Amino acid sequence: MPMRKSSEQKLLDAVDELLFTQGIESTPVDAVLARAGVSAATLYRGYRSKEALVAAALERRHERWRDEWDQAVAAATDDEDKLLAVFDALESFHTRTDSARWCAFLGAAAEYASPPDELADAIARDTHHFRTRLRELAEKAACTDPDDLAEDLLLVISGELTMRLRDPDGSAGPGRRIATALVRAARQT
Protein backbone atom coordinates (compact mmCIF):
# COMPACT_ATOMS: atom_id res chain seq x y z
CA MET A 1 0.00 0.00 0.00
CA PRO A 2 1.57 3.33 -1.05
CA MET A 3 2.20 5.95 1.62
CA ARG A 4 -0.01 9.00 1.55
CA LYS A 5 1.73 12.32 1.11
CA SER A 6 1.50 14.83 3.89
CA SER A 7 0.02 18.25 3.24
CA GLU A 8 3.53 19.69 3.50
CA GLN A 9 4.87 17.30 0.85
CA LYS A 10 1.93 18.14 -1.41
CA LEU A 11 2.60 21.87 -1.04
CA LEU A 12 6.34 21.50 -1.68
CA ASP A 13 5.64 19.27 -4.70
CA ALA A 14 3.23 21.89 -6.05
CA VAL A 15 5.91 24.57 -5.69
CA ASP A 16 8.33 22.34 -7.62
CA GLU A 17 5.77 21.66 -10.32
CA LEU A 18 4.45 25.21 -10.71
CA LEU A 19 6.61 27.96 -9.27
CA PHE A 20 9.98 26.53 -10.31
CA THR A 21 8.73 25.95 -13.86
CA GLN A 22 6.31 28.82 -14.44
CA GLY A 23 7.78 31.47 -12.16
CA ILE A 24 7.30 32.44 -8.55
CA GLU A 25 5.74 35.86 -9.09
CA SER A 26 3.56 34.80 -12.03
CA THR A 27 2.03 31.81 -10.23
CA PRO A 28 -0.68 32.69 -7.72
CA VAL A 29 -0.93 30.92 -4.37
CA ASP A 30 -4.40 29.69 -5.40
CA ALA A 31 -2.78 27.64 -8.19
CA VAL A 32 -0.39 26.07 -5.68
CA LEU A 33 -3.28 25.28 -3.32
CA ALA A 34 -5.31 23.74 -6.16
CA ARG A 35 -2.36 21.61 -7.34
CA ALA A 36 -1.62 20.48 -3.78
CA GLY A 37 -5.28 19.91 -2.96
CA VAL A 38 -5.02 21.73 0.36
CA SER A 39 -6.71 24.75 1.86
CA ALA A 40 -5.24 28.19 2.44
CA ALA A 41 -5.56 27.55 6.18
CA THR A 42 -3.30 24.50 5.79
CA LEU A 43 -0.73 26.56 3.89
CA TYR A 44 -0.66 29.40 6.40
CA ARG A 45 -0.61 27.04 9.37
CA GLY A 46 2.79 25.83 8.15
CA TYR A 47 4.17 28.89 6.34
CA ARG A 48 3.70 32.56 7.08
CA SER A 49 3.91 33.59 3.41
CA LYS A 50 4.28 32.37 -0.15
CA GLU A 51 7.98 33.23 0.08
CA ALA A 52 8.39 31.09 3.21
CA LEU A 53 6.84 28.18 1.31
CA VAL A 54 9.20 28.78 -1.61
CA ALA A 55 12.17 28.92 0.78
CA ALA A 56 11.13 25.55 2.25
CA ALA A 57 10.87 24.08 -1.27
CA LEU A 58 14.31 25.47 -2.09
CA GLU A 59 15.71 23.91 1.08
CA ARG A 60 14.24 20.53 0.13
CA ARG A 61 15.67 20.89 -3.38
CA HIS A 62 19.06 21.79 -1.91
CA GLU A 63 19.03 18.60 0.20
CA ARG A 64 18.25 16.54 -2.90
CA TRP A 65 20.99 18.32 -4.85
CA ARG A 66 23.55 17.68 -2.09
CA ASP A 67 22.65 13.96 -2.13
CA GLU A 68 23.03 13.84 -5.92
CA TRP A 69 26.40 15.60 -5.76
CA ASP A 70 27.58 13.35 -2.91
CA GLN A 71 26.78 10.28 -5.01
CA ALA A 72 28.65 11.65 -8.01
CA VAL A 73 31.71 12.47 -5.88
CA ALA A 74 31.62 9.01 -4.29
CA ALA A 75 31.57 7.39 -7.75
CA ALA A 76 34.57 9.39 -9.00
CA THR A 77 37.89 7.59 -9.20
CA ASP A 78 40.44 10.30 -8.37
CA ASP A 79 40.62 13.78 -6.89
CA GLU A 80 40.32 15.59 -10.23
CA ASP A 81 37.26 13.52 -11.15
CA LYS A 82 35.76 14.22 -7.72
CA LEU A 83 36.10 17.95 -8.38
CA LEU A 84 34.54 17.62 -11.82
CA ALA A 85 31.81 15.26 -10.55
CA VAL A 86 29.61 18.32 -10.05
CA PHE A 87 28.89 18.11 -13.79
CA ASP A 88 27.88 14.45 -13.51
CA ALA A 89 25.56 15.48 -10.69
CA LEU A 90 24.11 18.31 -12.81
CA GLU A 91 23.33 15.80 -15.57
CA SER A 92 21.67 13.28 -13.28
CA PHE A 93 19.79 15.98 -11.34
CA HIS A 94 18.50 17.47 -14.59
CA THR A 95 16.94 14.15 -15.61
CA ARG A 96 15.01 13.72 -12.35
CA THR A 97 11.24 14.00 -12.49
CA ASP A 98 11.30 16.75 -9.85
CA SER A 99 13.77 18.86 -11.83
CA ALA A 100 12.97 22.44 -12.75
CA ARG A 101 13.51 24.06 -16.18
CA TRP A 102 16.81 25.32 -14.84
CA CYS A 103 18.25 26.07 -11.45
CA ALA A 104 15.44 26.94 -9.03
CA PHE A 105 17.88 29.02 -6.97
CA LEU A 106 18.98 31.10 -9.96
CA GLY A 107 15.34 31.44 -10.95
CA ALA A 108 14.38 32.71 -7.51
CA ALA A 109 17.33 35.12 -7.48
CA ALA A 110 16.40 36.42 -10.93
CA GLU A 111 12.79 37.11 -9.97
CA TYR A 112 13.56 39.50 -7.12
CA ALA A 113 15.70 42.62 -7.24
CA SER A 114 15.72 42.40 -3.46
CA PRO A 115 14.45 38.99 -2.34
CA PRO A 116 12.65 38.59 0.98
CA ASP A 117 14.93 37.40 3.80
CA GLU A 118 13.86 33.75 3.72
CA LEU A 119 14.57 33.51 -0.02
CA ALA A 120 17.81 35.47 0.23
CA ASP A 121 18.94 33.10 2.98
CA ALA A 122 18.10 29.98 0.95
CA ILE A 123 19.94 31.35 -2.10
CA ALA A 124 22.94 32.34 0.04
CA ARG A 125 23.10 28.85 1.63
CA ASP A 126 23.10 27.20 -1.80
CA THR A 127 25.82 29.54 -3.09
CA HIS A 128 27.90 29.05 0.06
CA HIS A 129 27.61 25.27 -0.27
CA PHE A 130 28.80 25.41 -3.88
CA ARG A 131 31.78 27.62 -3.00
CA THR A 132 32.79 25.65 0.06
CA ARG A 133 32.48 22.22 -1.56
CA LEU A 134 34.26 23.28 -4.75
CA ARG A 135 37.05 24.84 -2.70
CA GLU A 136 37.47 21.71 -0.58
CA LEU A 137 37.54 19.46 -3.65
CA ALA A 138 39.99 21.81 -5.43
CA GLU A 139 42.28 21.70 -2.41
CA LYS A 140 42.20 17.88 -2.35
CA ALA A 141 42.98 17.86 -6.09
CA ALA A 142 46.16 19.85 -5.33
CA CYS A 143 45.02 22.91 -7.26
CA THR A 144 46.77 26.20 -6.68
CA ASP A 145 44.53 28.90 -5.24
CA PRO A 146 41.44 26.78 -4.50
CA ASP A 147 39.42 29.91 -3.67
CA ASP A 148 39.90 31.41 -7.13
CA LEU A 149 39.28 28.08 -8.83
CA ALA A 150 36.07 27.59 -6.84
CA GLU A 151 34.85 31.02 -8.02
CA ASP A 152 35.78 30.20 -11.63
CA LEU A 153 34.01 26.85 -11.45
CA LEU A 154 30.93 28.40 -9.84
CA LEU A 155 30.74 30.82 -12.77
CA VAL A 156 31.00 27.94 -15.26
CA ILE A 157 28.35 25.95 -13.36
CA SER A 158 26.00 28.96 -13.25
CA GLY A 159 26.47 29.46 -16.98
CA GLU A 160 25.82 25.79 -17.59
CA LEU A 161 22.60 25.97 -15.58
CA THR A 162 21.52 29.12 -17.40
CA MET A 163 22.05 27.41 -20.77
CA ARG A 164 19.17 25.08 -19.81
CA LEU A 165 16.88 28.00 -20.66
CA ARG A 166 18.34 28.30 -24.16
CA ASP A 167 18.67 24.57 -24.78
CA PRO A 168 16.61 22.46 -22.35
CA ASP A 169 17.92 19.24 -23.89
CA GLY A 170 21.56 20.35 -23.78
CA SER A 171 24.14 18.56 -21.70
CA ALA A 172 26.73 19.62 -19.16
CA GLY A 173 29.45 18.70 -21.66
CA PRO A 174 30.57 22.22 -22.61
CA GLY A 175 30.75 23.33 -18.98
CA ARG A 176 32.69 20.23 -18.05
CA ARG A 177 35.20 20.82 -20.86
CA ILE A 178 35.79 24.40 -19.71
CA ALA A 179 36.03 23.30 -16.08
CA THR A 180 38.48 20.53 -16.98
CA ALA A 181 40.76 23.06 -18.67
CA LEU A 182 40.55 25.35 -15.62
CA VAL A 183 41.30 22.51 -13.21
CA ARG A 184 44.24 21.20 -15.22
CA ALA A 185 45.70 24.72 -15.53
CA ALA A 186 45.32 25.16 -11.77
CA ARG A 187 47.11 21.86 -11.11
CA GLN A 188 50.04 22.70 -13.42
CA THR A 189 50.91 26.06 -11.92
UniProtKB/TrEMBL annotation:
UniProt cross-references to InterPro entries, sorted A to Z: Homeodomain-like_sf, HTH_TetR, Tet_transcr_reg_TetR-rel_C_sf
Domain HTH tetR-type, residue spans: 5-65
Keyword Nucleus annotated: no
One Pfam family in the UniProt entry: TetR_N
Domain of life: Bacteria
DNA-binding region: 28-47
Gene Ontology MF term list: DNA binding
Record PANTHER family: HTH-TYPE TRANSCRIPTIONAL REGULATOR YJDC, TRANSCRIPTIONAL REGULATORY PROTEIN
Stretches of the chain forming a coiled coil according to its record: none
Keywords: DNA-binding, Transcription, Transcription regulation
PROSITE patterns documented for this protein: HTH_TETR_2
Protein name: TetR/AcrR family transcriptional regulator
